[in-house]
Predict the 3D structure of the following.
Amino acid sequence: MFAFVSLLALTGLVSAVDFGASGPEWSTVKSAILAKSEQGSVQLKAFAAAVDPPTPEGFTLTFGPLNASNNAPGFMGFVLLDSYDTAGCASLCNARDFDSVGGLCQFFNIYQGLTSANKTTFTCSLYYLPTDNSTATNPGDATVSISASRGYRRTSAVPDGSFETFACTPPALTCSIASFNGWVGTSDNATVLDTAAISHDPALAHFGSGSISLGSISGKTNASGTETFKVATTVKGRNYALGLFHSNTLRNPTNASLGIVSVVWNGVIVDTITGAQNWTFHGYTLTAAGNDTLAFHGGKFPAFDFIDDVFLFLL
Ligand SMILES: *[C@@H]1O[C@H](CO)[C@@H](O)[C@H](O)[C@H]1NC(C)=O
Ligand SMILES: *[C@@H]1O[C@H](CO)[C@@H](O)[C@H](O)[C@H]1NC(C)=O
Ligand SMILES: *[C@@H]1O[C@H](CO)[C@@H](O)[C@H](O)[C@H]1NC(C)=O
Ligand SMILES: *[C@@H]1O[C@H](CO)[C@@H](O)[C@H](O)[C@H]1NC(C)=O
Ligand SMILES: *[C@@H]1O[C@H](CO)[C@@H](O)[C@H](O)[C@H]1NC(C)=O
Ligand SMILES: *[C@@H]1O[C@H](CO)[C@@H](O)[C@H](O)[C@H]1NC(C)=O
Ligand SMILES: *[C@@H]1O[C@H](CO)[C@@H](O)[C@H](O)[C@H]1NC(C)=O
Ligand SMILES: *[C@@H]1O[C@H](CO)[C@@H](O)[C@H](O)[C@H]1NC(C)=O
């Protein structure tokens, strides 16, 4: 189903030791930098610091150049490049196999590491959570100093697929709405419309507070609901990576095995997810026709399906 190969075998990608909030293991990166700088066979190219590098297609420059690298949550590993190659680092992010906790690569940090022996190295670090200059806090140390550090964020054709901009009217702490921010909720039962919703409830979200909820909230029908999004920015003929997380064990876990969700692209079912499942990543490679329609159809009271962190990235 998910077409991307793991880069671990292909490029010597060094995997993250810790997928939690502690960020890159600088000592691991530094050891790799020092080892690489000592390889006589590797021709390290001179760096033209004055030239702004091209911003890779599908990415946006978030910060830089700064003299500090990121130390941020969601680290997916790093690769030492032979040059300050922003397009190469973007390709590694695009091809990076998903992380089971965080999903697709969403951000990279590229920087120059200058060793005390005056050797130049180039690091490409990958993250499944976007970050910015606020976490560019690692200047390096006496053996490797960091410069020309830039951060690039991958642009999703589905804006706000984390549903974090949906907020409740105080004093409510949790709430839901059928349609929001381009997502349109519809029901298979014309008289019960609460089968598809955007929900604000941290207990029902993968990350943060927002998610899609499918299944009648009032319990008045076992009919399914659909959340549909019209994608405005897809380019006809181009391939996209769709990534999402799904769970049906958050409400009525004993009925979770009744859960069923279809992932629908331009009216065609590309996958049907069945069976009890905690938050699990699902990824697909899709071809755009332009003005594409993405939809999730599912929920079957007393089973509820939740979908979160929906990203559609140009490949
Ligand atoms: C980075 O360091 C160089 C060399 O010391 C300095 O010229 C430059 O201003 C620094 N850049 C930033 C953003 O601090
Ligand atoms: C380090 O390399 C730069 C560029 O090649 C050179 O200008 C500089 O003199 C070198 N510094 C030392 C301490 O070798
Ligand atoms: C960080 O980025 C913000 C927004 O782009 C900018 O206003 C701020 O000056 C930056 N801070 C540093 C230290 O570069
Ligand atoms: C649709 O909802 C009504 C309640 O408004 C219920 O009586 C009916 O059985 C439901 N139909 C289906 C197919 O679930
Ligand atoms: C769903 O509800 C309808 C109408 O209430 C009922 O006839 C049907 O048996 C239910 N289906 C399941 C799978 O529970
Ligand atoms: C939902 O789970 C409860 C508790 O296990 C069970 O009694 C009930 O039959 C289940 N409902 C359906 C429709 O399977
Ligand atoms: C979901 O996670 C809970 C807690 O770890 C576990 O007890 C349960 O078996 C898991 N359910 C499924 C369907 O994997
Ligand atoms: C998308 O829809 C807009 C407005 O309906 C139309 O102008 C445009 O040509 C369409 N693009 C494609 C690639 O079909």
